[in-house]
Amino acid sequence: MKLKHAINLHKGLTAFVVLGMMAIYQNFQTGPWIYLALHGTYGFLWLLKDRIYPDKQWEEELPLPQGIVMFLVLGAYWVAPWLLISRGVEVPPALLALAVSCNLFGCMLHYTADAQKHFTLKYRRGLITEGFFARCRNTNYLGEILIYLGFAILPMHPVPFLILAGFVLGIFVPNMRKKDQSLSRYPEFADYQAQSGLVWPQLWAANKPSAVTEK
């Protein structure tokens, strides 16, 4: 199996898992419905993205037991809806609005940055220093963090934030560092690195990054 099979299975099941939790606990308040709309839609959009512009890093083949472990690890993201639904908490309107805003910003950054990366590299190899990557080298990861931050807000419990921090520090940041090491083979990378943030945009860089470098 491929790594993406475990990831896609988790994304595709999320809406059904959350809806099942709502049925089991008979909790159909506004908070759970908003969570279902946000996380469920995000999962379906992920599957759509995988069909239109898949990410090559998820094409890695791995043994079935390792894929099962990956699926179980990703299952930690279902702790947030479980805490929200099982505890029957009533989410204040302001927090609902904040969660939706984080999700909207996150989806825009995540999916559009991935699209720019995919189609740019499809036709022209090299550093991507324009558009969503002009001031941030990992805009797609920033978007994903915002998406899951929106999910973590709704249960009003610290555990989802700790889980998100674990994924960021244990998976996202190492992947970003690995990407930087790979891009360092380009002579222009040092200048680009100085004028862009690893995950947060460096908005006050002195000069505009250099143009895309063809391989």
UniProtKB/TrEMBL annotation:
The keyword Membrane is annotated on this UniProt entry: yes
Keywords (alphabetical) are: Membrane, Transmembrane, Transmembrane helix
Q: Which InterPro entries does the protein's record reference?
A: UstE-like
Q: Which residues cross the membrane?
A: 7-26, 68-85, 91-111, 159-176
Which Pfam families does this one have? DUF1295
List the protein's name. DUF1295 domain-containing protein
**Naturally occurring in which organism (per UniProt):** Leptothoe kymatousa TAU-MAC 1615
